[in-house]
Design a protein that fits this description.
Radius of gyration: 18 Å
Structural class: alpha/beta
GO molecular function: ATP binding; ATP hydrolysis activity
Distance between the termini: 34 Å
Family: Belongs to the ABC transporter superfamily.
Protein name: ABC transporter ATP-binding protein
Organism: Maritimibacter fusiformis
Number of helices: 8
Largest sheet: 6 strands, mixed
Strand order of the largest sheet: 5-6-7-3-8-9
Helix content: 25-40%
Order of helices and strands: EEEHEHEHHHEHEHEEH
CATH superfamily of one domain: P-loop containing nucleotide triphosphate hydrolases
CATH topology of one domain: Rossmann fold
CATH class of one domain: Alpha Beta
Keywords: ATP-binding, Nucleotide-binding, Transport
Strand content: 15-25%
Shape: globular
Bound molecules: adenosine-5'-triphosphate
CATH architecture of one domain: 3-Layer(aba) Sandwich
Length: about 250
């Protein structure tokens, strides 16, 4: 579904200083993959997501998303989830989830039915008429995930979606995301600073390093499904985390 080869992006400041945000990003993503992008702050993870969402152009490299038979239109085919849920506080849960469908002008009755189904899928049945302030941080992120899926996008981009949650809620949301991913069959690219989260969630993992910012490795994570939290203490899991620590110069 996605092919990147040698993708590079440099930002130029108003003073003319050049900052290489990402270089040599090369990866192939198949429909239904969940790709973790892991790396330290400033190594270009968000830049890569913005390139995939067509919010930024790359300077060099090949970017192919979709196929001739199944073309990809970024405005229609991308769903995004950010570190903050960015819910509209004056809208109830159902109306927040409906937002992308309204912006895209999708048929209303169908979109409402889909929104209700997604609210149920993210575990919030019964909360359709609540306002965001009535929900916990984890519940708000569930609403954001439902909102990212309502227009049935081909690609879901998640930028540190659980970064603001407490550790236990985050682990719970990891399992929830795996379930939602399996149920929805979506292709997901997921940015995280957490090596453990990258390994637990990813079917594939891209490791980005800084100084200079580049994609240092891209590999399959061949751990069985369903993934469970106790896998984190197994030897195969440890091998993947060691591999990433080494790439980041931390082992
Ligand atoms: N719009 C911009 N203009 C200039 N420089 C930018 C811009 N956006 C990002 N950068 C720079 O590009 C580099 C990569 O930024 P990016 O946000 O992609 O990193 P990141 O890996 O997502 O970081 P973090 O994990 O902290 O969110 C950083 O050095 C950043 O300062």
């Amino acid at each position: 579904m996605i092919r990147l080869e040698g993708v590079k992006k440099t930002y130029v400041s108003r003073e003319g200083a050049r900052q290489v945000a990402i270089s040599d990003a090369t990866m192939t993503v198949n429909t239904g993959d969940l790709v973790s992008l892991v790396g330290p702050s400033g190594c270009g993870k968000t830049t890569l997501l913005k390139i995939l969402a067509d919010l930024h152009d790359a300077d060099e490299g090949v970017i192919e998303i979709g196929t001739d038979d199944d073309p990809f239109t970024p405005g229609r085919d991308v769903g995004m989830v950010f570190q903050q849920s960015l819910l509209l506080k004056w809208r109830r849960v159902l109306d927040n989830v409906m937002l992308p469908a309204e912006i895209l002008g999708l048929p209303r009755a169908e979109a409402r039915a889909r929104a209700r189904h997604l609210i149920e899928m993210v575990g919030l049945a019964g909360y359709e008429d609540k306002y965001p302030y009535e929900l916990s941080g984890g519940m708000q992120q569930r609403v954001a995930i439902a909102r990212a899926l309502v227009h049935d996008p081909k690609l879901v981009l998640m930028d540190e979606p659980f970064g603001a949650l407490d550790a236990l809620t985050r682990e719970k949301m990891n399992l929830e995301l795996l379930r939602i991913w399996e149920e929805s069959g979506k292709t997901i690219v997921f940015v995280t600073h957490s090596i453990q989260e990258a390994v637990l969630l990813g079917s594939h993992c891209a490791v980005l390093t800084s100084g200079p910012a580049r994609m240092a490795d891209y590999f399959d994570i061949d751990l069985p499904y369903p993934r469970t939290l106790d896998m984190k203490v197994t030897e195969p899991f440890g091998e993947y985390t060691r591999r990433i620590y080494k790439l980041l110069g931390m082992a």
